[in-house]
Amino acid sequence: MINQLVSNIKKTGAPIVVGLDPMLGYIPEHVQKKAYAEYGETLEGAAEAIWQFNKAIVDNTYDLIPAVKPQIAMYEQFGIPGLAAFKKTTDYCKEKGLAVIGDIKRGDIGSTSKAYAVGHLGRVQVGNKTFAAFDEDFVTVNPYLGSDGVNPFLDVCREEKKGVFVLVKTSNPSSGEFQDQLVGGRPIYELVGEKVAAWGEELMGDDYSYVGAVVGATYPEMGRVLRRIMPKAYILVPGYGAQGGRGKDLVHFFNKDGLGAIVNSSRGIIAAYKQEQYARFGEANFADASRAAVKDMIDDIKGALEHE
């Protein structure tokens, strides 16, 4: 799938991913009312509102973007109906030709890690048949438990030609409490980056590895260092827009070919209609506001890369 992701990025000219992280507070009242009229103010009603919200945004942006990144917690909070909406969203996005990065941030060991990997990237055996349960193309993985937690994902990636993005330096303010601590005079995030590069050597696509990294847009200088440490890893860059990252901050995450990184924006796109810049669209045209926000993000990043 890394080859497909790179192909999608080249085709669209848009190294961005839309984070489908639908809090109910982002969903316009008319969408919620319609869902509640059919299912009541229930978990099923909330899941239907989420699905309809996601579908409208995907329908208005899929031709501009290479990938989406649904954050599973936003669906899990609504229980089984929420997970059904997650699966429905994933399937629909793949039908539209988008790569799907399941933001699941799993990190465990042994059979538990294998079960996560099989459930999200692989195929589970049921009698004489196998089934792809959630069937994302990539997932995010927490490496805190070491290789024991990551290797089961790599095994499934090898079988299914899918990929992972390993958390290396995250965009949240307190990430440095652990990630910046020095070991042998070097920060932990650099050591994790070296492991990502080593894991990736065994799982190469045409030009980039199936093993990528998550590095926050809020730390551009660290991005420069990690880009050098992981030359063949695709970098998933959260923190754009709402968290403060801008195109000019991101040039060091890319390689000289203009590839090697994909930048995520979640509420900056899906809740764009709430921003003053896109208020002219109003709630009724929330998906049109999302399309405009995608175009502006593409222009911002392209402009920054062209001036580098």
Structural class: alpha/beta
The 3D shape can be described as globular
Report the major sheet. Answer: 8 strands, parallel, barrel
**How would you classify the quaternary structure?**
single chain
pLDDT below 50 for ≥5 consecutive residues: which ranges?
Answer: none
> Helix count?
12
- CATH fold group: TIM Barrel
What number is the mean pLDDT? 94
What distance lies between the first and last C-alpha atoms, to the nearest angstrom?
29 Å
Cα-atom radius of gyration: 19 Å
Main traits of this protein?
308 residues, alpha/beta, TIM Barrel, eight-stranded parallel beta barrel, two-stranded antiparallel ribbon, 45% helix, globular, pyrimidine biosynthesis, Aldolase_TIM, RibuloseP-bd_barrel, Orotidine 5'-phosphate decarboxylase, decarboxylase
